[in-house]
Amino acid sequence: MRLPQARLDQVLDRFHQVEARMGAASDGAEIVRLSKEYAELKPVAEAVQTLARARAEVEDLQAMASDPEMAAMAADELDALNARLPDLEREVALLLAPRDADENASAVLEVRAGTGGDEAAIFAGDLFRMYSRYAQSRGWRVEVDSLTEGDAGGYKEIIATVTGEGVFGRLKFESGVHRVQRVPATESQGRIHTSAATVAVLPEVEDVEIEIHDKDIRIDTYRSSGSGGQHVNTTDSAVRITHLPTGIMVTSSEKSQHVNRDKAMKNLRVRLYDMQRQAKDLARSDTRKSQVGSGDRSERIRTYNYPQGRVSDHRINLTLHSLPQIMEGDIDPLLNALIAEDQAARLADLEAEFS
């Protein structure tokens, strides 16, 4: 892809403007805004400058090639540089392509048992363990917000906050229906059962501005039935907030009612923000052939087949015969393939813009 020089100049001009303004700004809010924009623009500007230097060097080498004494040396260097240019162009293009504003955000991870009874709850537990082990390998922190255990193990529902750099960008394509095919421990006949669990990954954005009017919410307090000793069982400290216009309901059941209210309001903002994201994702998916990033959480995205030891992602027709390793948290091969597919779609969008 040959990126227009005017577009590259535009990036550098804006970067230098922000850089200059940061040195002159005195307002705290403006400094914060400029610092954020500077951090986002810096890697793009550096990549653009590297590409510009490479293009200039190509021109210099082409001029040297006309000199008989320098032609042989120039030709070798020119071949090497021309081979490197497409990679530099692609790197810049990816940085310029429309990207998810929440790429670097932490995330709320929700795993719920679907069809399949006890086996579905056990599978939901297996999935949560898989994500937890993956998070651990990347140095992310996992904090369970709420859970409902299954009767035979696992979870009917578990919600956790995963905190770290780039969590949402890595896990966002995990949202959807995950299907498992295996012989349950409770199956005496050795028959293979099919069960399912749903996964939702929501960005947790600290400074998101979602206006919530008092008239639009109902706040209920109730006695927690969870573990936690006498205090939990005798005090109406748990909080349930219902957002009346959308029907979204969030709960929190720590020991402090004040903490629960704050936590529930934060979770409500996350979910309202996610509703806006889903609407944008679905609108964007109408213009894309790829299902990756479509935002359709009812879509069956992956099958875990235990008898054959394979995992298949149906969106990109990828099958890996490494199910044990994947269930132990080695999910990068899946995530990298999904991210690559999304990058290809974003590059296609950018190419269409320049054509």
From TrEMBL:
A molecular function GO annotation: translation release factor activity, codon specific
Entry annotated with the keyword Cytoplasm: yes
Question: Compositionally biased, Basic and acidic residues: which spans?
Answer: 279-289
- Main subcellular location: cytoplasm
Name positions with the PTM N5-methylglutamine: 230
Name under which the protein is recorded:
Peptide chain release factor 1
Q: Which InterPro entries match?
A: PCRF, Pep_chain_release_fac_I, Pep_chain_release_fac_I_sf, Prokaryotic/Mito_RF, RF-1
Q: Which UniProt keywords are listed?
A: Coiled coil, Cytoplasm, Methylation, Protein biosynthesis
Q: Which family does it belong to?
A: Belongs to the prokaryotic/mitochondrial release factor family.
